Amino acid sequence: MLEFLLYPVLAGLLIAVAAGPLGSFIVWRRMSYFGDTLAHASLLGLALGLLFQIDLNIALISSCLLIAIALVILQRRSSVSTDTLLGILAHSSLSLGMVTVSFLDDIRVDLMSYLFGDLLSITRDDLIIIAIGTAIIIGLIYKLWRPLLTITVSEDMARVDGYNVDGLRLVLMLMVGLVIAIAMKFVGALIITSLMIIPAATARRFSDSPEKMTILAVLIGCMSVLGGVSLSWFEDTPAGPSVVVVAAALFLFSQIRKQPR
């Protein structure tokens, strides 16, 4: 019972803590499609990990980070718009992942658990990896909060202040890739981005400062995890989608509720 319920709850709360600040930056910078691109790329990492018998956690994290680096390089060297590049990378990596899976004749894998998450798949080792990833993300955000906020407001202003804009943008993308990779087993590749965006979008309505929005996004994400896991436990619904449904319900409530003057 301890491993069945405690590990997924702790994993979800840790993911919410990491996703809250990153989700705020995604909302501010309008990077939601970038998150979807990395989520698609994670399936390619899963397929390659199974094909070459590599640890799946390492394969997932590596694939997400490599796609983030590839996007930064293509942005600097290609005349194609960022939206177009994201579309190309997202669907190419997803298709390549599915083609790779077709070669795995001797390996049986439940893709549904990776697409939509699996409550029972969280192990003690997974929890440790999620905790390490969350610690890295929170540490980087704490150290780079002011520079990241500055490039979000104005990249030109950030350059005037002496910040390495390209380097900070790459760090932000790598952090998003890391949280997607560590959260894939809990929430699922297809809906992980929503766990970052929805709590941040909900928190935005009640926030008058970036710091307040970030804290509220973390709290709303934690509420969504607890509500989603409870729904999954009592009603036998999929854990990942249940978390997103609760987050969406909180968002709708925030939009219906009259904003105080």
Automatic annotation (TrEMBL):
One GO cellular component term: ATP-binding cassette (ABC) transporter complex
Record keywords, A-Z: Cell inner membrane, Cell membrane, Ion transport, Membrane, Transmembrane, Transmembrane helix, Transport, Zinc, Zinc transport
Membrane spanning residue stretches: 6-28, 40-73, 85-105, 126-145, 170-201, 213-233, 239-256
Topological relation to the membrane, as annotated: Multi-pass membrane protein
GO biological process: response to zinc ion; transmembrane transport; zinc ion transport
Gene3D superfamilies, per the entry: ABC transporter involved in vitamin B12 uptake, BtuC
InterPro entries in alphabetical order: ABC_BtuC-like, ABC_TroCD
Subcellular locations according to the entry: Cell inner membrane; Cell membrane
Family: Belongs to the ABC-3 integral membrane protein family.
Function description: Involved in the high-affinity zinc uptake transport system.
Entry-linked PANTHER family: ABC-TRANSPORTER METAL-BINDING PROTEIN (PTHR30477), HIGH-AFFINITY ZINC UPTAKE SYSTEM MEMBRANE PROTEIN ZNUB (PTHR30477:SF23)
Protein name per its UniProtKB record: High-affinity zinc uptake system membrane protein ZnuB
Organism placement in taxonomy: Bacteria, Pseudomonadati, Pseudomonadota, Gammaproteobacteria, Vibrionales
